[in-house]
Every structure is written in C-alpha cells, then in structure tokens.
Specification:
The complex is a heterodimer of chains A (362) and B (988). With 362 residues, chain A is of the alpha+beta class. Chain A has helices at residues 40-55, 62-69, 144-153, 242-251, 330-337, 346-351, and strands at residues 6-12, 31-33, 70-71, 74-75, 81-87, 92-94, 99-102, 106-109, 111-113, 117-118, 126-128, 136-137, 141-143, 169-180, 185-199, 205-210, 217-221, 226-232, 253-258, 282-288, 293-295, 298-299, 304-305, 309-311, 317-322, 340-341, 355-360. In chain A, strand 14 and strand 15 (185-199) form a beta hairpin. Chain A is globular. In chain B, the strands form six sheets. Chain B has a six-stranded mixed β-sheet, sandwiched between helices. Chain B is globular, with a radius of gyration of 31 Å. Helix content of chain B is 52%, strand content 10%. Classes of the chains: A alpha+beta (362), B alpha+beta (988). Chains A and B meet through strand 10, strand 11, strand 15, strand 20 and strand 23 of A and helix 12, strand 8, helix 15, helix 17 and helix 28 of B.
C-alpha cells in the first residue's frame, strides 16, 4: 500500500463556498456562511471527484467507482488524505488551544494542576494558568515555520501568527432568492445572503496531501460549483526531529494537538488503547477542548443525511504522560505519530480527520 | 452533624451584634447587652450567651457564642485599623460610603449633632423586641422550627424594620470607621461562616452550554423560555443547598429578595407573608458561588483526604441530580402533552434519547486557606501584582495589630475566592462533552438533532421517506394549525416550544397561586407584537372611536379560521404589562371585553403580507375570507391613525437589545482596575483623621491610597446592587416606562426586546441607572439618583457606582426575521466591538434588512462630550424633517478623499457646508426656507456624527489597519436608514 503523500494546492479562481451539514431553507433562513477551510470530508469529496474525472469513470457505475476511489465513507485502501490547510507560501495550522494569552504574562502554555476538587474527580488534573488572571484563547493560524517553534522550542512570540488585520481570506456576501420551479418566478420573502470566501492577496488557496497523483487543472468545487485549480505544491519539512523526541522522553509529558477535527466514540477524549497509542505506555493527564463541532453531511451511497456527530475541533489539545520506565523505540513511535491522522474514527482518519502534531511541555 | 446545633449556631450569629451597634459603640458601649436581650427574647433566656471577649458565661446559660465566625467575617471584609484609637462616634457623624466608588451619603445636620429622636431610635428597638417576641422560637432543639425561624430572621426581619422605620435601618454600618457595608451583611456572613466552619469550602456550580441552549431559538417565545428554563434549573440546583445550609450559604447571586427564592419562601416555606412574587423574566444566572462545609465524617483526620472528597462529591452530585430531576419532570410533562396531541409513536424514542443528553453541569470546590496552609495553597496561583497587593495590606495589618494576622481572621477570603474562580475556569477549559449521533433529517432550529417523526428507521430509509415522515408529523393540525409542517423540531427544541403549553409547575412561576389549567400558557409576545406595541397602545387609547373596526376585524379573523380561530389566538395580555395596565384602566366593560378579545390575536395579523401569503396558498373557497380579514385589518389601522392624529402604523421592525456589565468578572475578583474606590474613599473622614494621628508608623498612610480589597460584604453589595438593578430597575424601565419586554435579567446581563423607536432611550437610561451610586424610589413611580444627603423616607437602593458601566448591542430587524442569527450577531458585536475594540462603556447599533446587515455604527455612550444617543436621535429627526438631505451620506462618500486629506477642521466644515448648500438648493423654495432655519443645528449634528464616525472607524478596525474612511459615514447612513424606515412606515 502506497502511503507516500504528494503535496497539492487547490487554488480558488473565484469565490468559494463550503456548506456545513446544517439545514438551510430559503424563506425561513436568510443568511448562510461558508466553512473555511472546509472539513476533510468536503476535501475528500473534491479529491475523489477529481480522481474519478481524471480516470474517466462513469459516475453511474458503482463498481468502477468503488475500485477507483472507494464507496461512501470507505476510501479506496491506497487513498489517504491530509488537510486541507490555508496556504500562503507555506501551510498554516490552527494554534493549539493549550496556548493562551494573558495581558500580564503574554502567550503562555496552560499547565496541568493536580489535586483540585471538581466533578471530574481528583484523578483528573485541570489545565490552569497559575499567575494569570484573565487569559484568552487564541483564534489564529500559524505557518509551519512558526508552528514548529511553538511546538518544539516553546517560542510563544507568535510573531508569525496570522493577524486579524491581514487575513488570508475574507467573507464576501452574495445574495440569492428562491426560485419557484412551477411558475418560473422568484418567491416573495425568500431572499437570502450567502457568505462566500475570497482569498486575499498573498493567499494562494488550500494545501493538502494525497497518496494518489492528481492532475493539474481547473475543476468546479463547493456548494456553488465555483472554479478552482489543482496544482502541485511544496513539502515543508515537518518531521519530528529525533532530539525533540528524545527530549520528550525525559520530559515524560507531551501535548498531542489536533490540527483537524476528530470524532471520538464516547466523549471528548481519544481512545488511547488502540493503535498506534497502545504501543506507548501512556496516560491522559488533561485536555483543553473547544466546544464540540457538529458535523454531518449527506451520505450519497445511502441517499440519506449522514449522522450528525460531535467532533473535538481543530486546536484541541491533550496532555499525555509516559508511564513507568520508557520502552525502547518510544522515541521513534512518537516520530511516527507526529503529523499523521491517528485519532478518532478509523475510516475518517483516512480522509484527514484526527490529524495530530506533537508538542513539548514548556 | 447535629442538625439542631447547626441552625442554633447560625441563629446565634445573626444576633451577635445588634442592628444599632454603631449608634452605641462610642456612646455607652451597651450594644452587647441589647444583643443579648434580643437573642433571649427570640430563643428564650438561658440558651446562649453572647458575652464580651474574655467574659465568662454566667450560670444558667447552656452555651457561649463561638466568636470565630464574627472574627472571620470581620477580617474578611475590614482592614485592621486598631481597635479603639480610630473609632468614630457615628451617632454624631452619621455617614455611609459606596464601597465601589466612595460616594458618601450622610445624615448630618449642619453644625449640630443629629437628633436621633427624629429617627425613631427607641421605636426601632421596641419594634425589634415586638417582632422577635411575636415570632419567638418555641423549641430550641427542633431543627425544623429552627431552620424556619432562621429564614424569617434572614429575610423578613430587616424588611419589617425598613418598612416601619425608614431606609437608614437598612444601611446602618457594621463598623463606624468603614461605613461602606451594613450590619446586615456582616451578620449574614457570620451566619454563613458558622454553617460552613467545619472546613469551609468555596463551591462553584454551573450549568453548561447555556449560550447554545438559549440561542437555538426561532421565535421570541423560544428564546424567552430557553433562558427562563435555565434560571429555573439553576434554582433547582440551589434549592437543596438553601434547604440544608441556609440561603446565606450562597455568596452570590444573592438570594435575598430574589424572586425565585421568594417564591420558595412564600409557597413552600411559608415564612414570607408577601403576595406571590411572580416573575415573567429569567432572574438567575446559570452559575453560583457558595460557602459550604466539607463536613468531615466521624474519624476523618485529614480535611483533604478521601472522605472529604467524597463529601464534596456528594454535594456536587446532589445539585446535579436536582437539576436533572427538574429537567426530567418538565420534559415528561411536555412529552405527555405532546402524546395527547399526536399519539404514541416512534417520536417518543427519539425524544427520550435527546432529552437524556441534557443538561450538563460542572462544579469545583476550593478549601478556605488557613493561616498555616496559605503559603502552600496559594503558591503560584496569582500574578506578582495581585499577591503583592494583598501582602502589602497584610504587612500593614501586622504592624497595626500583630496578633490578628497570625490568627484565623478571614483575611484570605479574597484570595481563596480568586483561586476558586481560576480553578473553575480550568474546569471549564477541559471542554468535556458526550458523543451523540443524530441520524436522519435535522431540526430546523438547531440543525444538529434529528427531527421528531414516526417512521422507525434502521439506517436504510432514503431521504425522501424521511422527509415525508418529518413533514407528516409536523403538519399535524394540532401542532401546526396551518398544516404546512414547515417547522420540524427535534426533541430538545420541541421541549422548549411546547413546555409552556404543557402547563407544568413551571407556569406557576409567572401565574403564581392563581395558576390553573386555563391560565395563559406563555406570557411572551411575538416579535411582531413587540414591533407593533406603540401602535397597539394608541389603539387602546382610541378604543371608543374604533370599536366598530375592532369588532369587524375580530369577526373577520374568526370567519377566516372558521371554527379554529382559538388555535390561532396565541397572544395573552399578561405578556405585555404596559398594554395590560392600559386595558385594565378602560372603564367601559363591553369595550374592555372587546379589547381583551382583540388582544388574543397576535399583532402579526395586522400586517397585510401575512394575509397575502395565506391568500396565495389558500384553496379557492377560503381565499375570500382571508381577503376580508386583510381588508378589516387595514381598515382598523386606518381608523386608529385617523383617530389619533396620524400616528404611525404598526412598525415592521423591532429591536433586540443586549447589555452586559463591563469588567464584572474583574470586579468580583476585586481587581484594582475594576474597583475605583481606595481605602481613603470608603473610610469615614473622622477615621482617616485618626489614622493620620495614631497609625502613621504602621504603613497606613500608604495603604490609604490603595484600592479597597474585596470581601464577602462587597460580594453581597455587588450582588444586591445587581439584584436590585435586575429585579426592580430593569423591569420598571423596560416594561413600564418603555413598553418593551424583558427576556433575561441575570444581574448585569440583559436581553430585551423593544420597539425600534424606543430602544436607544431605553438603553441609555439603563446604563445611567446602572452607573449610579445609590437610587431611591420604587417600581411604581420610578427611580432617582441619591447623592449627598441621605433620605429620611423611601429606600436606599445600591447600584454599581459611577465607574461601572454597561456595554450594549442593538439589532434592529424585520419582525419576521429568525432570531438565531440576530442573537449571534448581537452577541458578537457586543463583545468584539462594544467591549473589545470600542473599549467598553459603548453601544453598537446594527440594522438588518431581510437580506442581511445593512449598516453598523457605535461608540462610547459619551465621547468628547457628545452624547451618542442624543446625536443619533437628532440626526434621525433631521433626516425625517428633510433638514439633512437623504443623499448627503452618498455625496460625502464622493468627496471623502478630500475630507480625509485634511486635518484642518475648518476645511472639513467648509466642504460639508458646500455639500449641504448644494443639496438645499435642489429643494422647493418652501422646503429651502425651513431647512435654512435649521442650518446651524443641522451642521452641528452632522459634524458630531462625523466626529464619532472617525473614532468608530479607527477603533472598529484592529490596531494596525489603516482607517477605512467610508466607515466614518456609518453614523450618517444609520440615521438616514432609521429616519427613512420610520418615515416610510409612517406614510403607509
């Protein structure tokens, strides 16, 4: 099985629009905004469509579809995706939620504090900011060149962070009105607005990785079928260096940061008893998770709405601790885990959900 | 625990100081004798000895008071200023101060000592004796009686005194030197500590995901019931604690005078003999802070050991279960109601699954640090600045009275409370949730959960089948009288929608004891009715002249819905207090009956477009009936306008007002940038003189300049001020004075629906009242500010002080606009713009048309001496009158480069004048003449709006960005839009 990833850029040639799974009825609802960047589920749809198109597969032929890209949520075994991420010279990633901003202390990591009474029980440590009275979470994007400094060097200056004043994309309002198909007229009181996404100067599009080769060229994408072009892209060096992995072994504790949402079976916490985590002797110390992201969509195979589930959003962070004596090979397992999709539902990992990065505790 | 002993301790603490202690401390020092007399009167002689320090208990008394609660309560609130050297003769110099801004109120009579005879000093003592004797405890060992009598002293006794003898008795200070908190707060804190003294813990409990739960609303009623239900659930979590530990155990929100707590005292406890305190709006925030004992069980050695953990877990679990029990009860009742309407079916399975997932609760508990454990317990939790501030105070206290600082005197209340809030934030950061898979078609309100339907689904049903099943279920005539089924709800959204109609015990909260199955289901009007309210009030005024038209409309309405009109009559007058009052005053009985009948019809039926949709969709035989109803509605509007001298027709726009106190979190933490008063501002002037004379070596001269520290009395004061604001001032202003409707008032956090015309004045007046020091008045005649001289009659109502402020967002939108996106936008602009970028004490106004946000503008309430609301109102009027030409904003857009190119205000003025002049010349000679008369006022309005516009443009954009010049015209565009909106409606 080929799991070597190739790098691509999806460059919008117009505005783009990606719907969430929530219902929208013109007349009842009047405003709908686009998700951006789109979820891995949307991205896999775009990529699979592209693969089918470049292979010239008849979309009515299920057998051909299945053998080319897989059917429904089951992607073809050799088709793996990672991303998408905003791209401007390099990919941008969500700032981990364990990093907060305090007016007095600046950008700092939350710390796990033991022995506090709460409804979670004494064994569950709470993520706190000792000495910080009024911290805020950071809603920002970091380029890889800033992200690794934050994750591995504890450099929290965030000078590379995407600033609100210079966004990579903006929302552009487009108006629409419901059409009465029977009469061929517009329907009164059914005017609505859509918040499309337009990339700004310097922003190039969506960066993603795929194990298959994709042909360059334009294709219509998203809810409104706007044009975008596939291009080959660059591969930043995102490998977890051996010395960082070794440092984590002596730290004992490390952060696992979701850079794409993940769906866990029971609650907001990952199951660490399954592969690849089971090969590490670890325990969860604490979590910093944003409120759940409901994601659904439409199941084309079953011709019915997909189940709406709660996802731990990108940025959610889990503090893990290596137990007991360190097993041999732990450092290389950490290296293997970093920058892979290894949390949450297994089928969805193949689409790009549950993509994680590993960070040191400072 | 010995339950009787528990209540005995609490009761004794409520009497450890007499109400009039400050009047006697300097004069005769006999306050302890009077305290003992009162206690003996109430509990019976020989039960408990209050005594003085180092004084032996006389024979015949069962117990002597444990003074620790008094010491802790004192130390938690007051600085150490020496015992006698700084004492003030308050009898001679009666003065109180506002603890947050230092505003004084005094009862001095110039040059002469106050004549206390005038103030009924002896009569008050006599009243106290009488009250306590009448309500005396019969059995000192009966915990049930003791708990009831405790509630009576806690809630009723101060109320009785104030009623009989005036406002001074509600504010008599606990300490003559620091008269910023009352004796009542001190006594209540002492009793709360007495109840928690067995390893006291700060306990914070909250219901989670409240914002999502409230904002998943399509109609005003959904929105209202969401917030009302959460307040009810919060009360459910508080009630077991109030029962077991007393309501004083809740540090904040204060339960004293809280409508939900009063309902409990009146109906269940029957200790408060007041009319039922019904409430139409939500009156509790979703989070509370309590002081509770970690009641170590027999044999427990370590307070932090496993047994202690178990005890705190039990308390948390008790609260969580109470919330769940209430939720399940209300849900089951609503399910039964729906069962009667739609029968049994698969929908109940969906319902059960979804209802079980709510609500989530979280809590934390932090031990009150002892002198020995403080260093370890606080280590690392606070910034250096915060720690140094408290350590400075501690060092001065130590210099003043060394022994005090080394004993348990409650000085660490503030830091323990601060730590508990930080820990709660940490608990919240975990972000826990449970997984919930929702298959099939999703709810049209929340968009997340499966709609209720009756088609069993194993996951193989196709979308069309599911859609049909959902439509079949929701077009049931009993759920949707129009049988369209366009709104399809999940279990949770349906629960909110039908909860009030299910007529559960929740309805008693607004219907009171008069609750019966025929009472109004939900006292909340639609957005259409709120938009049309000014017109409806006119209609009542002119009812006599338009009686025929009202009657004609009702008949046409009934005929249009042919026997099913009742299900379309969803309005109830109890939801609109101002309208109800006005109808009540109509003398003529048939006329009144006619109006009551008319006001069962939602005001949306006065709008022609509602009928047009019905006419378009109606079968042939019904179309004419709808047409007639439409015409009758138009006739009625015409007649009312004619009778009232051309009043505007019903407005199609309503306003959603959100307000939130600035820096309230910091204020509750006692941050020095949130409390504006320094010690020198709150201490009595005479005490400051004595400190300067006697304590200059202790560091007090420096400490006087430092900000006042937070303590339980300040928490009580803030909580009471917020409660008075939310329970009295806000309902009066919103519902009585401005004919609007309150959805939520949880202290500093308000959500109001109003008419577009009145919302600006309402918002400004709410802000002005909030930032007063003290008010007097009542909800019948309104409230006025107090300053300087303390009142002899009436009440003294604390507010948050002149440095406190509210920020506001106002969304003006079409009455048929769904609420969820408006609420989300309102919240965003309140927090991101008004509070963050405009730096608080600001208001932001956004106008929505049905295609989205049209224009947004805002600024500080007062900026550069310009009153924002006043200038907006003047500009709206000027646009309506034509003094400002409608095209001016667009003309200015064209010359914006020239306007922005210069910093010279005179050049700008010239450019502006030239544009105005050009526009004037295009008018008729008569109009020109009128406009010229107002040239100077008009120019001033435009200049002020532009000045505020530049500031808005600069601040609304983030720090680094270039100013976007066109944003500076938003003030003009907003007022032009508001002017034309109201004018257009006026011309219809």
């Amino acid at each position: 099985m080929n799991t070597e990833f190739k790098n691509y850029l999806l460059r919008p040639l117009d505005t783009v629009f990606f719907r969430s799974g929530q219902p929208f009825n013109a007349g009842d609802d009047h405003y709908i905004r686009s998700l951006f960047p789109p979820t891995p589920r949307t991205m896999q749809g775009i990529v699979r469509t592209r693969l089918l198109s470049q292979a010239g597969v008849d979309v009515e032929n299920h057998t051909d579809i299945e053998s080319t890209v897989g059917i429904g949520d089951a992607l073809a075994p050799d088709l793996h995706l990672r991303g998408p991420y905003p791209f401007s010279g390099e990919p941008y990633f969500p700032v981990p939620r364990y990093l907060v901003h305090d007016p007095d202390l600046g950008y700092v990591q939350l710390k796990a504090i033991p022995n506090l009474f709460s409804d979670l029980g004494n064994g569950y440590q709470l993520p706190a900011l000792p000495g910080g009275d009024h911290y805020d979470y950071i809603q920002a994007w970091l380029p890889w060149s800033g992200m690794y400094k934050l994750l591995w060097e504890g450099n929290t200056s965030l000078k590379y962070a995407l600033e609100e004043e210079n966004p990579l994309w903006i929302e552009e309002i487009r108006n629409g009105i419901k059409h009465d198909c029977m009469k061929g007229t517009t329907q009164k009181e059914h005017l609505y607005s859509m918040g499309h996404i337009r990339m700004q100067k310097g922003a190039e599009g969506l960066w993603f990785q795929c194990t298959r080769s994709l042909s360059s060229g334009p294709m219509s994408i998203g809810g409104e079928g706007r044009m975008a072009a596939f291009e080959d892209s660059i591969q930043p060096d995102m490998i977890l260096p051996k010395e960082i992995a070794q440092a984590i072994l002596s730290d004992k504790r490390f952060w696992v940061v979701l850079i794409q949402p993940a769906r866990f079976e029971k609650n907001h916490l990952p199951d660490l008893t399954e592969d690849p985590w089971s090969s590490l002797n670890i325990r969860l110390i604490t979590s910093v998770v944003e409120k759940p992201l409901p994601l659904g969509g439409f199941d084309l195979m079953k011709k019915r709405p997909a189940d709406m589930c709660r996802y731990a959003p990108a940025g959610s962070s889990f503090l893990l601790e290596l137990n007991g004596p360190i097993r041999s090979g732990t450092a290389s397992i950490l290296q293997q885990i970093h920058n892979t999709c290894c949390l949450g539902n297994k089928q969805e990992r193949q689409m790009g959900f549950g993509h994680v990065m590993i960070g040191r505790v400072f | 625990m010995n339950e009787a002993k528990f209540w005995q301790d609490k009761i004794i603490q409520l009497f450890h100081d007499p109400t009039d202690k400050v009047l006697h401390l300097f004069r005769d020092g006999k306050h302890t004798d009077f305290a003992q007399e009162l206690l003996d009167t109430f509990i019976g002689k020989g039960k408990a000895w209050l005594g003085r320090p180092n004084e032996a208990k006389p024979e015949g008394y069962r117990v002597a008071i444990d003074n620790k609660a008094d010491r802790v309560s004192t130390g938690a609130d007051r600085p150490v200023i020496g015992s006698t050297v700084t004492r003030v003769d308050w009898w001679k110099y009666p003065e109180i101060s506002h603890p947050l801004d230092g505003t004084p109120l005094n009862w001095n009579e110039e040059g002469t000592p106050l004549n206390w005879q005038k103030w009924d000093e002896n009569a008050v003592r006599e009243s106290l004796r009488n009250e306590l004797s009448t309500n005396a405890i019969q059995n000192w060992d009966d915990p049930t009686e003791l708990s009831m009598k405790f509630l009576w002293v806690w809630r009723c006794l101060p109320l009785q005194l104030m009623k009989q003898h005036g406002p001074l008795w509600s504010v008599l200070p606990a300490d003559s030197r620091i008269p910023d908190h009352s004796i009542w707060d001190h006594l209540r804190m002492a009793s709360a500590y007495a109840g928690a003294k067995n390893h006291p813990h700060f306990f914070i409990f909250a219901i989670g995901s409240v914002q999502t739960f409230i904002y998943q609303a399509r109609t005003s009623r959904d929105l209202w019931i969401g917030s009302y239900l959460l307040a009810d659930l919060t009360w459910a979590s508080i009630q077991p604690l109030a029962e077991e530990y007393g309501p004083d155990a809740i540090l904040y929100p204060s339960l004293n005078e809280n409508p939900l707590a009063d309902q409990w005292l009146i109906s269940e406890k029957k200790v408060l003999s007041l009319p039922f305190h019904s409430t139409r709006s939500s009156m509790l925030p979703h989070k509370f802070v309590a002081l509770l004992p970690q009641k170590a069980l027999e044999g427990t050695k370590e307070p932090d050991g496993p047994t202690g953990t178990e005890v705190m877990n039990n308390i948390g679990e008790q609260c969580r279960q109470a919330v769940e029990k209430r939720w399940q009860y209300l849900a089951a009742e609503t399910e039964n109601f729906l069962l009667k309407k739609v029968g049994d079916g698969h929908w109940r399975e969906i319902w059960k699954g979804q209802i079980q997932g709510f609500p989530s609760c979280r809590w934390v508990a932090i031990p009150w640090q002892t002198v020995e454990s403080r260093e370890k317990g606080f280590a690392g939790w606070f910034s250096g600045q915060v720690w140094q501030r408290y350590e400075l105070a501690r060092s001065v206290y130590k210099n003043t009275k060394p022994a005090y600082v080394d004993s348990e005197r409650g000085f660490d209340y503030a830091l323990t409370h601060h730590k508990s809030q930080l820990v709660y934030r940490s608990r919240k950061a975990i972000g826990d949730f449970t997984q919930q898979k929702e298959p099939g078609i999703k709810c049209s309100i929340c968009g997340e959960r499966e709609v209720l339907h009756n088609l069993p689904d194993d996951g193989s049903r196709k979308v069309n089948e599911l859609r049909r099943a959902a439509k079949d279920f929701w077009s049931n005539k009993k759920l949707d009288p129009d049988e369209k089924g366009s709104e399809r709800l999940c279990g949770v959204c349906a629960f909110k929608r039908y909860l009030t109609e299910a007529k559960t015990k929740l309805n008693q909260r607004w219907n009171g004891d008069s609750f019966n199955q025929e009472g109004p289901a939900a006292p909340f009007p639609s957005t259409s009715t709120i938009a049309a309210l000014p017109f409806l009030l006119k209609l009542v005024e002119k009812a006599e002249e338009v009686q025929k038209e009202i009657d004609g409309f009702i008949k046409a309405f009934d005929a249009a819905f042919n026997g099913e009109a009742k299900s379309h009559k969803t309005l109830h007058l109890s939801g609109l207090p101002s309208l109800k009052e006005k109808v009540k005053k109509v003398n003529d009985s048939p006329q009144k009956e006619l109006l009551e009948d008319f006001f069962q019809i939602d005001a949306e039926y006065l709008f022609s477009e509602i009928w047009e949709t019905k006419i378009r969709d109606a079968p042939d035989d019904k179309g004419q009936l709808f047409q007639t109803a439409k015409e009758k509605a138009e006739e009625l509007i015409k007649s009312v306008r004619k009778a009232s001298g051309d009043c505007p027709p019903p407005s199609r726009h309503f306003a959603l007002l959100m307000m939130d106190g600035d820096n309230m979190g910091k204020l509750l933490l006692g941050a020095d940038d949130a409390i504006s008063a320094a010690w020198k501002d709150v201490l009595h002037l005479k005490a400051i003189e004595k400190i300067k004379e006697n304590l200059s070596e202790t560091g007090w001269l420096d400490l006087l300049k430092e900000k006042r520290l937070i303590g339980p009395a300040l928490h009580a004061f803030i909580s009471r001020a917020l409660a008075s604001f939310a329970y009295e001032v806000v309902p009066y202003l919103v519902e009585d004075k401005y004919d609007s409707r309150l959805i939520y008032a949880g202290g500093d956090d308000l959500l109001v629906m109003s008419s577009a015309e009145k919302v600006l004045d309402l918002a400004r007046e709410l802000q002005q009242h909030f930032s007063s020091a003290f008010l007097t008045g009542n909800s019948e005649h309104g409230f006025t500010r107090l300053s300087g001289k303390g009142p002899a009659t009436g009440r003294i109502i604390p507010m948050l002080g002149q440095h406190a402020s509210l920020s506001a967002s106002i969304i003006i939108a079409h009455h048929k606009q769904p609420l969820q996106p408006l609420l989300t936008r309102g919240r965003n602009i309140l927090h991101d713009l008004a509070k963050e970028k405009l730096e608080r004490s600001s208001v932001v106004i956004s106008v929505f048309t049905r295609s989205g946000e049209k224009v947004i503008f805002g600024g500080k309430w007062v900026e550069n001496h310009i009153d924002l609301v006043e200038v907006i109102k003047s500009a709206v009027k000027a646009f309506q009158e034509g003094y400002i030409p409608g095209r001016l904003p667009y003309k200015l857009q064209e010359i914006l480069p020239a306007l922005t190119a210069t910093d010279d205000p005179d050049v700008r003025k010239k450019l502006l004048r030239r544009e105005l002049e050009t526009s004037r010349k295009q008018k008729s000679p008569e109009e020109q003449l009128v406009a010229e008369k107002h040239v100077s006022a008009t120019e001033q309005i435009i200049e002020q709006l532009l000045e505020l516009g530049w500031i808005f443009a600069k601040k609304a954009k983030a720090k680094k960005a270039q100013m976007q010049p066109e944003v500076a015209l938003n003030g003009l565009l907003l007022t032009r839009f508001l002017g034309s909106l109201l004018e257009k409606e006026g011309k219809e």
